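Figure S7 source data.
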Amino acid sequence: MAKQFKKVIEKVDDGGKALIKDLLGDNPTRGFDLDSVYCINNQYYVIELLFCDVTKNPWPRDSHPSRYFIDDKRKFLSLWEITKRLDGRLILINYEATHSEYKLMEVSQCTEVGIQTKDDLVVNKEGMIRWFQALNNHDYLEILELNKDEYRIKCPQCGRSLVFRRGKEGRYKSFWGCSGYPECKTIIKTR
Ligand SMILES: [Zn+2]
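Tokens for the predicted zinc ion complex:
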């Protein structure tokens, strides 16, 4: 393996960002960071990580990127523009502080009105590791290939998979129920 592929990310390099802050002073930035870009077999993948602060906002499973779009429209439009110019694919990943739950989403369209996604899937950490390491090994895994029991979020009571359900009416519009129902009646309501 070529030497440059052996580099391990040991620490976050924020030095460049600190320099930009120093240079701009109180002026707001008109640039933005790209989280990660991969080129696999001549196909570009633009990866953007979206932090979900679950103390204030929904969990990754419930958080639609349009939530961020309101505050950060210019960034998303720019990300989409870059992706199109690269003839690439834009993948958004919701995550939260404990790194236990993720939502992977491929963007199909982004306009002034908002973001549309096509494939999306909620996965646990094992699923996320599987997907990201495949990407890192230049073997892109389609999001829906992670649609397997081992990568689903598990019930906190019995450890079986949780299933996302949409209620027609009743107490909750949508919720996560245990796949062990009716033996296990765990319900995690969504916000
Ligand atoms: Zn259960």
